[in-house]
C-alpha cells in the first residue's frame, strides 16, 4: 500500500514540471494561432532578452521562498543598486561594463544583508521587514538620483551595446540571455548538489528538525536574503543595460512578477518545496504572457490585473491539488 | 574506567512552577537494553531530554565512559554518540529518506554531494532493518512505522553508541512491534547501548535486562527485569494500590445521552458505533493512532464525518462545528491543553469564560465583573491553586492548568463531557482531584466519555470500556469483565482477526 | 460547589500608577509631543487651529484604514491590498459619476466596491484556510489595482468637486472642526469600543493569540475573520470617497503606500504583528503622530518618496526593538521545545 502512494506522489511531483511544460506549449500554440509571428526566432529571442531580468530575479525570490520567507523589497533593491551603479558610470568612476555589473551586484548584496540582519537578528516577520525595506530602498533610489534619470547619452557606448550583442558567447546567444542561463545552471547545481542548497530545503521543510540536526538556521537565512539582494543587484544592472537608462521607478512591481513565476513554478510558500526547473518554466510562462498579450490584442493596461488573477489562481489551484492528494492518501489507508 | 558507558547522578530539573526531576540517578552499561518506566508526568521524557542535550539540569552530573561531560546543545550529545528517536518524528517530509538520514553529515567530495554513494549507504542501513522501501522514497509517503525505521537508520549512520527510544511501539502494530524488537536486539548484539521508554510491560519483558522506575520526578529504583513481577513493577510506578486511587462512586445509570451509529471518516475510522448514558463514565482506549481522538473530534464538530448518524437524547443531531456541539451540551477537554485547551498568555478568568463569554455579556458588551465572579466560582469549584483569576495560565503547573480546562468546560450547561487523556502530564495530587470531579459529575447525571492510554485509569474509572484498533471498535467490555490482558488483546486486533501474544 | 480546600480566589484587581507609566501608549504620547514641538518650531503658524485641522484632514483620509487594520493585525493576519482597494473604489466612483450617474449612486458604488474587495479577501482566506493572508492580499493587491488600470488606463477622471455636497464631505467644517475629523472620532470610539468591550473584540484577541484554542472554545473563527476583512474593504471605500472629495480627480495609481502607512500606524501603536496583543488607543495616537510627522516633513520640503522611506524605517525600528529585548527569553524556549516529544 505504501509503495502505491509513494509512486503516486512521485508522479504528481515530477508531473508538476511536466504539466507546466505542457501548459506552456499549449499556450504558445494558442497564441501562434492568433498571431503567427509569435513562434519566430526573432520574437522568441526578443522575448527572452526583454524578460531576462524577470527570469533571473525569480531565482533570488525562489531561495527566499524555499526557506519559508518572502522578500518584496527585491524590486526596490534592483532599482537602488542599478541606479547607484549607473550614477557611478555616469560620473566616470569607472567605464567597464563588467565593473558596473559587479558594483551593482555588490550594492544589491549589501541591501540583502540588511534585510537578512533585520529578519534574523531583529526577528521581524519577513513580510513586514521587506515591506519597510521596499520603501526604504525605493526612497533611497530617488534621493541618490536627485529624482533624475541617467539617460542613454550618459552611458558608455560599450555598455549600451551590451544588452544587444552576443559577445559573451562569441555570437551565439544574446548576452543577457546568456547570463540568465548561466545563473540557472549554477543555481541548479547549488540547489541539488551542495550542502548549502539542501539545507535551504531542510529549513523550509521542517525548521525544528533542522535546528536539531545542527543546522545554523540564522546563518543560512541571512545568506539567502543576501543572495536575493545580489540577484536584485545583478538584475538591476541587466535592466539598466537593457533600457540603456536608469530611472528611479524602474522595476516597480517586478516583485509580483517573480512571486507569480515562483508560485506557478510550484514553489510552496511555506517552504521546502520547489525546483529550479519549475521556476524557470514559471518565469518563462510569465514572459510568454507578457509578450504575447499585446500580440493578440490585449491592452497593456490589462497586464497587472492578469498578473494578480494568475497569482490568485495559482495559489488556489495549489491548495486544491494538495487537498486532492491528501484525500487520495487517506483512501489508500485501508482503514 | 567506569563499568558504565553512561551515568547520571543527582539530576534535578526545574521548570517555572514545577520540579520535573528530583535528584535522579541512572546507570547504563555498554551493550545493555535499559527500560525507563513510570506514569505519565513521572519525568521520563524530561530525563531523556537532559541526556540528549535539549534541556540543562539545574543540579547533577553526567558521565560518559567515566568522564564528566556537559551537553550545551543537542549537537553536543549527537557528537558524543547519543541518538534519540522520539514519539513525534522530526523529519523533513519533502525530502527523501536518504536526505533525512544524512542531513547534517552528508557525503561530500569537493563541495558536491555524492548522491549515488549516499543512496547506496542508506540502502545498506535500511537493509539491516529489513525496510521494504528504497532510500529514494519521499519521507511523507511513508507510514509512521517506516518513518521510525528511518530514524533508527539515522542513529546508526551517526555511529551512535547510545540509542534512546521514546515510546517506540506506541504507533506500531503487533507485527511491526516484533520487527522493532528484532532490530533492537540486533543493535544490542552489535554493541549499542539502548534506553527506551515504554508504557507497555510487554516491551520491557521482551527487550530489557534492566528497568529504572521514576515516579513523581523521583528516582524509585533500578531492578533486574528477570526478578521483578508485573504487580511489583506497577506498584513501584504507581506507589499505591490501584484501587485506592479511584473514588468512583456507584451511580444509577440514567437515560441514553449519546448514540453513535456506523460513524465513518475516510482514512481515520470506520463503522464506529457506541452509546453513553447519563451518569456513565465510558472509557475509550487503544494504541496511539487507533482513531479515538479523531472520533471525538467528529463528535465535537472539529472535523466532518463521511457517513453514519449521531443521536443526542434520542434525536438525530447534525454537528458541523464546535458551536453546534456546545449548544447541544457537549463539552470537550482536548488531549493537548496547551495547544488546544488554553490561551497561555491570558489569565485564568478569561480562559474559563471564553466559551460562554456571550452569556455574561449584555447585548454583546462584555461584563468583566460578572465574568470574573463566575470564573472565580468555577475555579474554586475545581480547586485551582492560584491567588487571583488574573493569574496567567502559563504560570500554573500542569495539574492546575488541567483544572482550569475542566472549570472552563463546566462553565457551560453540559449533558456530555468528553475528556481526552484527562490526566496526561498531571501530578498525582491533581490526578486524584480530577477523578473526584469526574465522580461528582457522574453523580449529577452527566455522561462522560474518557479517552485514556493509562490502563489503571481505564480499569479504575470506567463503567464500560470500548477498545479501538486501527480505526474500528474492536471490543466493548463492562467494568466487571475488563482486564488489562483483554483490553490489550483487542487493542492489537486487525479487522477482526485476533493476533495472539 | 463548595471549595474543597477552603481556598478563595480573588476576582478584583488593584491598579498601580507604575503600570500606567511603563505602558507603550505613554511612550507614544511622548513621541507625539516631540513631533508637535518640532513642527511648531519649524512653522510659526503651526499651532493655529484652522491650519492644524487642515493638516490633520490630509492624513485622516488614509488614517481610517488603520482602524480595521488594527483588527486584522490582532487577528494575526495582514492585509496588503488596502491601497489598491482605495484606488479601485475611487476609480469606480469617478468613472460612474462621469458616465452620468448621480453622485449619490457613485458614492454608493465606491462603498460597494470597497466592501466587495474586502469580502473577496475574506472569502478566499476563510474557504482556503491553508493560504496565508500575506500571499492572498498580495494577489488581490495586484488584481484590484490592475482592474483600476484596466478601467482608466493612463487617464484621470475628475470633475468630482463640481458637486457641492461631495466637495463638502472633505472640506466642510463645523466651526473650525472639519466634519471628516468628527467622523474620524466617532469611528475611532466605535472601533475601540468594539475591540475592547465586546464579545466580538474578545474573539479577535482569542483568535490572534491561539487560533486552535479559540476554535475549540466555540469561537466562530472564520466568521470573525470574514467580517474583519470585509470591514477593511468597507473602510477603504470610505477612504476612497474622502480622497475623491479632497483631490477632485482620480487616477489608477493613487493611494500607493497606503498599506505601509496603515500597518506602520498600527504597529507603532503597540499592536504586535504576531497577533493577540496590543491596545487600540495606541493606534489612534500613532495615526496622529505619523500624520503630523509627515506634515512636518512636508513643511521642510521633503519629497513623498523620502517620507515613505522614513516611515519604512520607523516600521522596522518599531518592530525590531521589542524583539531585541526579549531575545534571550525566546531563544531559551525555542531550544527547549525543538524537535522533541510531548
End-to-end Cα distance of chain A, whole Å, is 12 Å
What is the CATH class name of chain A? Answer: Mainly Alpha
Please report the first level of CATH classification, the CATH class of the largest domain in chain B.
Answer: Alpha Beta
Q: Domain count of chain A, please report it.
A: 1
Q: Give the fraction of residues assigned to helices of chain A.
A: over 70%
Q: What is the overall number of helices of chain A?
A: 14
Shape of chain A: globular
| Helix-strand makeup class of chain A | mainly alpha
What's the total number of strands of chain B?
A: 22
Within the CATH hierarchy, at the fold level, what is the topology of the largest domain in chain B?
A: Rossmann fold
Q: What is the rounded Rg of chain A?
A: 21 Å
Low-confidence stretches of chain B: 495-501
Largest sheet of chain A: none
Number of helices of chain B: 19
Q: Nearest-angstrom radius of gyration of chain B? A: 24 Å
Determine the N-to-C terminus distance of chain B. Answer: 42 Å
Biggest interface between chains: A-C, 51 and 53 residues
Proportion of residues in extended strands of chain B? 25-35%
Report the CATH superfamily of the largest domain in chain B.
P-loop containing nucleotide triphosphate hydrolases
